[in-house]
Amino acid sequence: MRGGERCLEVVCELFPGAPLYTLLHVPGSVSAIIERRRVVTSFVQRLPGAADGYRRYLPLFPAAARSFDLDGYDLIVSLSHCVAKGVRTPPGALHVSYCFTPMRYVWDLYEDYRAAAAPLTRLAMPAVAAALRRWDRRTEGVHHFVAISRHIADRIRRVYGREAEVIHPPVDVARFRPVARAGDFYLVVGALVPYKRVDLAIAAANRLGRRLLVVGTGPEEGRLRALAGPTVEWLGWRPDEEVAELYGRCRAVLFTAVEDYGIVPLEAAAAGRPTIALGRGGVLDTMVPFDGEESGEPPTALFYAEQTVDALADAIRRFERVEDRFDPVALRARAARFDRHRFKAAVQEYLAQRWAAWRATAPAAR
To answer: Model pTM?
Structure first.
């Protein structure tokens, strides 16, 4: 249940009778709201080792998405970070794509993924990526794009040549509770994949001798563990309740990636804790930076400019000099602007408007 799944959960609530089409489903891995509906999977579900090793089947994903038969539906809502937006839209149906990002591993972050790949994978990647880019540019089946941030709206414009409105993903503020006193540790939460740059957080913790807790697993875990010094602790994935408690007790969250959106800083804010963040990407939509001056809004994050260990270590030192300037009440109030009920209302209103316009302008299609 990461950010994308939490968005899906809200769409499931808006359309309680609608089936869910997905490349792969591991029963019990998502919330009951999602599990309760009829789930239709692609042929990827039946491939050997797909539950844990689905990434190796990436070249097959476009065909898997195209294999779904959606005849008979009037409205298709795709939640897409890879190939879901490429489903075949039947004649007369309206297709709205809530786009987390165009495929990051063949566009902006291609070099990062290639550098971290195994030798044989690295050898095959140029040809596979070129084919996926050609396929990904074909967006004629999508009538409207909605982006999760201005950063992603810009990427959609650059990659697809399409405009997108922005509806920010939700943070479930009710899951989090500020605590009276923060602990002595910094926190990283997320999948351990190359573009997250968790190695920078580890290197900074090593250099400064600061305690760092890492919540998450992923293909980078072995390499990252080898880099870690004695002040770094590995927690793996943890239940939502435990992660919420860790947010509330941490000194600050370290956020080292150029993220499409970045739900982690908002979750930290909901727990009353600030973020030390690279000042690029989706975080610019949600966080109020500390700039040393009094401004219109209380700060929720301290930004640093370069994706380097030196810049992050310097930002941690700066944060420790001013951490009393971050108010837990103001942090939680900032997170409330992106609360789950606001996301649900925004999505419902947007889809209702698009549906009404579709019916008014294309009556002959049905």
So the answer is: 0.87
